[in-house]
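Weekend entry, working from home. Most of the wet-lab plans are on hold until the incubator is repaired, so I used the time to fold the two sequences that have been sitting in the queue since the last round of cloning. Logging both here for the record. First:
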Amino acid sequence: MRRKVFFWMWLSIFSIVVALPIILPYFHSGYFPTHDGEWAVVRLGEMFRELRDIQIPPRYSENLNFGYGYPLFNFAYPFPYYLGVMLKLLGFGFVDSIKILFAASVPLSAFFMFFTSRLLWRSTLAGLVSAILYVYFPYRMVDLYVRGSIGESLSFVLFPLLFYLAIKLISKPSFLLVGSIGICVAALIMTHNIMTVLFMPLYILFILIQALLKNKKAIKEFFLSIFLGFGLSAFFSLPAIFEKNNILLSQIPIADRNLYFVNLSQFILPRWGYGVPIDPNGFSYQLGLAHLMVLIIIVLSLLFFLIKDKKNFKEYYIRLAGILTISAAFFTFLLFKPSEFLWENIPLLSEINYPWTALGILGFLISLLAGFLSKQVLGRFVMIFLGIIAVVLVLPYAKTQYYFDKGDDYYITNDATTTSSNELMPKWVKEKPIERFKEKVEIVEGAGKVDNVSYNSKRITFDALAQKNTEVRVNTIYYPGWNAVVNNQKSEIDYSHEKGVMEIKVPKGKSKVELKFLETHLRLFADILSAASILLLLFYVSISRRLKFR
């Protein structure tokens, strides 16, 4: 027992020490500019507001888009912001909560990569080398200090954790492992849509091959865990997929994919910048010298085994390395222009506009393969040297442009849509808001007055005193789920106005009007599916505890 405690303490210290030089800028007061980092703070503030309004699950933002609202969390990945709300409830500010999540993603990814590589290659040195290369990967610095992508940064924690749990499941299936994989799959789906699309086919294929090689009986438990993960996340994923035709993203892509393919010099040569990729000062597409060397050495080594030593090539670890190398070659191919036909024709992949996002999966695979090299081919000294090279070359990129301190109030009062091209705007909005409304509720036809207006992210109420039949405009953009009741009678909502806001007819005299944002049939089905999956998960946990007790 004491030995296990010591090991866990040692590994925790190692993960923190490896990560600390990279995340030191996050300990500076205030914040720093990135492409999406400040939007993450704004979204966290909105998530906090929606949960405070008891909008569960959060879907519709009332405060953003100049107060006209839009269905932010019906489409934007919510899991990082659930974690952020938990930190906020512990007493941290909105900015600090986001910074903590970014910073924590680095040591946690090192921690789980160590376990995964150590388990896969049966070598502690393999775990250490893989963890260092995984953390000191140039694209990780891009996410932390240039793009500010909180979803991608947290995804890097889940990749090795999912591999670790699946390898354990194949070795010895258990209810607890099925439930754990299900939770992590759900977390990945709700953490970053694009990374899920890129990672899950690799994950399923790799584990299926592993199961066929080692334990075919585990295939059933593995697929059960995958289905459980999709069920747990259904409340988010199903509406995001099947309601996409309601928003502008269904009509126009947010970017021209052809502008963002990588060329060979960008892939190989070191460079750094803080702008968007098509700018002269655009961020780096580089793989990194150490990671490039690992990729070249692994390919040459496998070719040697295949040509000169066919007997050893059939050995389990070499076959495993071969599968990972082929996968790495595929993701490398996706970065370049010749892969365009795949991006255009493969379902879900065709929804991704930035080919360079494949760098994230490629970094994971190469870091894992580095563990194989440390055990099978090169030996400890060469791989330690490559680890040092990675640290020396990548650490200088862990820096900000400058710092500022705008305070939490700046973000929680921000009117932005937190999107680059208004892609989450309902497509019936022809005239996009450019400033806040003067009145939340106003009379547009007829005569009368409106009093006692009260509103939040899921409910709007007011009293209307009309001298004749009157039309009232509520300056909130309509989205399916909004329902209106006038004097306890359901009323039709007209949203044909240029701004896509809701207009309601009220009769002569006094009227009590209430609008509520409710779940549609599809969303209700998705909610029930997630609730049923939670019950199934609890059932598995109960069974696991009983078996352990016995």
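Second, folded right after the first finished:
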Amino acid sequence: MGREHMQFWRTATILLVMITPSFGQTVPGKLVVLGTVLDPSGASMPGATVQLLKGTNNPEQSLVTDETGSFRFTQVAPGRYQIYVRRESFKPTSVRVVVRDRDPAPIRITLPIAELREVVVASDQAGQVSTDPRENLDVVKLDRKALNDLPMLDQDVIGGVSRFLDSSALGSGGTTLVVNGLEVSRIGVSASGIREVKINQNPYSAEFARPGRGRIEIVTKAGAEDYHGTFNFLFRDYHLNARNAFAQERPPEQRKIFEGEFNGPIGHSGKTSFLITANHEEQDLQAVVYASTPNGLIRANVATPEGQTEFSVGVNHQFGKRHTVSIRYEFGHDYTRNSGVGEFNLPEVGADQFSREHHLFYSHRTVFSTKLVNELSLHAASEDDRTHSLHPGVRQINVVDAFTGGGAQADRRATRNHLQLSDAVIWLRGKHTIKAGINITDLGRRGASDRSNFDGTYTFSTLDDYLRGTPFSFQSNRGDPHLAYWQTVFGAFVQDDFRLRPNLSLGLGLRYDLQKHIPDHNNVSPRMSFAYSPDRKRKTVFRGGAGFFYDRTSDGAIGDALRYDGQRLRQVLITDPSYPNPWSSAANLLLIPPSVVRFAPGIRSPYTVQYGVGVERQLRKSTTLAVNCVEIRGVKLFRSRDINAPLPPYYSQRPDQTMGRVRQIESSASSRSRSLEILFRGNLSRFFNGTIQYMTGRAYNNASGINSLPANSYDLSGEWSRADFDERHRFNMLGAFKAGELFTFGVSASLTSGRPYSLTLGRDMNHDGNANDRPPGVRRNSLQGPGSATLDLRWSKDLPLTKKKKEDGPAVTIALNVFNVLNRVNYAGYVGNLSSPFFGQPVAARPARRMQLALKFEF
């Protein structure tokens, strides 16, 4: 076993000892609590989840009602309990029951139709073993209470949970973010307005385009029957931080965040409620430049201040008993100064970025009957992004993996005005829960005015080449920078989750996806999942599934294909140009063959096939274990290839002399990954509640994405290798230690083995304009990077302002968050370029130890 693996297991062992479970046997009771769950009409309700809670915090048992709507808890000890019942499209309901020296009378619980107001139920439950296809336990689920206790840098929920995603399951656009059932690009509400975060919930559902491991689902707060509010103030300052490994001194950084939410009823009817959230951030950040120039090594801190303001207001109203309407408006404004500076990029290549967004949401729930519910959601958005170079009119100089200077060459404006629609019908019929609908994920107009690289960029292989004035390429754009086009993304689905027997359930689904600009209309995705419990107490469940998941291309690739057509915008590539002037006059530019971007004839929509099996086990009343094996195969994935590259063996000229580089976007790549996941959830010891995940696996592919070009466009045999994101081992832990009423310790730990990187020559040996050529016989990603280890802690103390409990009265919380507590240097950006002065060395490191102070007022 290598040194890296020994270090990984040593550190993991230390962390596991901290939270070792005490799986002692509890003394069982001998009484029975039973009852029936009904809908408002008095009909029985099968498939409802029923939980027996001790007080408000300790779940005792959990089960699902049978075909008659009945439930039965056995071996219940005398005491006071709550029975909490939930079912999709119905309002969760909690009733109290007192168990004395004999069995209590049967209980009848009626679930009312769900409203769009929030119902708060306090529970530290880990999730219970269930044969419901939607209740898989290999899910990472964080409720509001867990989010409050965990160390979250700048309250960045997305960044805090992204480590639990599987890069093999991501699409071309990266992580899929689903907020309140709609696929969006941003959360839209402040951090305290988030009610729940989930990853990998119901992974094979046909309702979603991507697998569960490739999406983050967020549910925001709605209204409430009483007034509630939260105000957070977070503060970071460089005096409390350690120095970055590549900075000569601690950069003078400071960050302040003001954030909060306020919700409650409007009027006295109980039918109208509201939610207001706001967030304002001021960040005096610094980028670390680490570059080699003719004047020597440059190590400098460069100010990159950022700011963000977000605001949202929503109103919910119930019309009668059948209609509930919600309307929400969101506004966002962001700016970044000196964007793009850092590592090889000198301060002169910085640019300022600004963005402004307006969003309007409308949702309408209609209850046609107790068995039929319709949910309609609409979203209209207007987005405007602008980038301005700090030094316009200056050519850029790029010495590969040494330094980049000159102008940023990044002057552009992009607008996006679009609509989204989601309409789903939920039908309860006997043992079946059928959900069908349509998703218009995107219907809108894109506009762009892009003058990037209009002044041109010289690229050199080495510093010596730069001093001699011998670049290997010059690229420049000329022509009409304006572009406007329409985009349409459509999906339709039907999903049937049904219970064949009390211990066996199936989920069957079918989905269809369609995207404009990709001439492939045969994108039908079948999905299947099952859950089976072999024992009478249903403490063990075997679960599995399989499905097809279609991908779609990004706006960037579509924009490139429409813009760089050789006519509208001419992209010129000159290999071995003269320096400093590649041509004697601008008129000569028209004589140079243009480079173009186009989709390959007959391009297909890529898809992945995911399948897996696993077992879930109830270890204790609030502790579960899930073990799952998953394989993902990517078929017809996107890649780019220069089909007009100079021909071997002399690489002296391109086949088509009337064209320059012809970047063809193809669906010809593939991938394959396998993983084994072990996931603990719940009260893993007397004082610790949380989630622990260990994954081991491998991931291989032959392209790094839609924009990646191979080293040799005529020989792709050396491209199949470890994927850029391949990590053989991964350990994650999120949770909190409770010291009674004294304080809470939140813990976030992450250990990963190293990722690969490529060995390259750093020279353009085949004259295609790229310096990604590799030595003969060397595959992509043949070098190994180091692993990483991060431990974050949060200490917090609740100070009630009245004699009531914190949940019932106003309170102040003070907290100290420490990120990378051990101040371990986690290197990044290893250079595999043989021509670089940094070959075999890292040029960046993840942040050193940082501290964050927090003050929260809650009522």
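Plan for Monday: verify the second prediction. Confidence is low (pLDDT under 50) at residues 14-29, 116-126.
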